[in-house]
Design goal:
The complex is a heterodimer of chains A (99) and B (378). Chain A is 0% helix and 52% strand. By secondary structure, chain A is mainly beta. Chain B is α/β, with parallel strands linked by helices and 378 residues long. Chain B is built from 13 helices and 11 strands. In chain B, helix 2 links the parallel strand 2 and strand 3. The chains are: A mainly beta (99), B alpha/beta (378).
Chain lengths: 99, 378
Amino acid sequence: MSGVPITQCASCSATSFPPRIWCPACGSAELSDADGELGTIEEVTILHCAIDRSVSLPVAIGTVQLDVGATVVARLEGVSSGERARVSFVEHAVVARPA
Amino acid sequence: MTRGAFIAGTGETPYQRHAVAGGTTARLLAEAARAALVDAQLEPRDIDGLGVASFTLAPDHAVDLAVALGISVTWVMDGATGGASALDMLQHARRAIESGDATNVLLVAGDRFGNGAFAALVKGYNVATATYLQGIPTGGPNALFALLTQRHMERHGLGREAYGRLVVVQRAHAASNPNAAFRDPIEIADYLAAPVVSDPLCLLDCVPVVAGADAVVLSGRPGPSASVRIRALTVTHNSDNQLGDGLVTGLAHVRQRFWADARAGPSDIDVASVYDDYPAMILIQLADLGFAEGDALGTLVDRIESGALPVNTAGGQLSAGQAGAAGGMHGLVEVVRQLQGVASAITGEPELGLVTGYGTVAYRHGASAHAAVLERLS
């Protein structure tokens, strides 16, 4: 079970999502892959319409502040603003569920 | 020797909610281009530089359009930053003219989305969107800017009505713009009751996508009507490495240099086109440039609503429509027309105008944020 793929700098420890190639904090090219799993839900929105008819609606979407330091956007399943969540990236979907 | 760079002509097609059957993106771009040439009193053979910004011209690029238009050029550029493309192209076209690489540069932007084309564009907008957002699904940037607007409301203590007042006044401006796609007046009650797209954003917070195109001609010589010159132009890309919350754009980092170049300040601006993909972004860009110093944003909303600071005077994208990559060019065209005294609804006798561009939603928010000050030459 993995979270979202983040990059962590071997020189300065800064973490980034989406993954970077050079560290935005110090410029190092020594970035290692890590997983971001646990975090806290920040703001939440319910998407009600989309121009793409294949999109299944409504869907709850929120910002998740990962404990490792990066911020991701996720589909929320069973979690609300302010709650702790476990983030996964499975079948092309970034999803946050209760931790 | 550096020469000056003057905006010698503008052109804009009527914006259509539904693209006319049988039309093509290239023909739409050509229509705007021809209007700009006529306005500048130039012929195609006078054009020696071409810049194009369009999502739907693909797989063609600027050089292909040069072939279709029968023009040979010594400068070419493909603007690829969406709403920031107009000022990106203007940045480089200006220097081309000042250095002598070209004498008359045509910049054109526009789009015509066929069935499913817009949905496909927002799904595969870039690698980050296709990989991490499409599968949620977000179905485009509306949900992202809904989250951003919530952060903005919380940071500044604003309610939905503040954003609605911007939407309402832009719709009032659109009433006198015959090219605008949406011109019927609305009131704040209409805004507050409009269908929710992604809370807190309603239908009227999201730009209507239309078919259309805009063009300007930049020249080393003044145009036949009142000439407009670039006083300042500042461009930023990835200023925050996408590590911020989107409530501050690159404009905040460059504003001192920008106003120093302009030899002016916010209070000298007579008319402005502020990139309006969402109402919150209007307030964010203006605040970044210093238009809300010491005041709560509510005061800035008051000034925009009353016309003390005229913003998006042809309706902006929120009412005139977003013709794909032409969004930024529309704002540039409108400010030029205001300065030339030929806009649909003139606001006094403006001498200095502000234009902003914002685009490239790299992941959660825009990565490109630019601004220009234009002046009317007497």
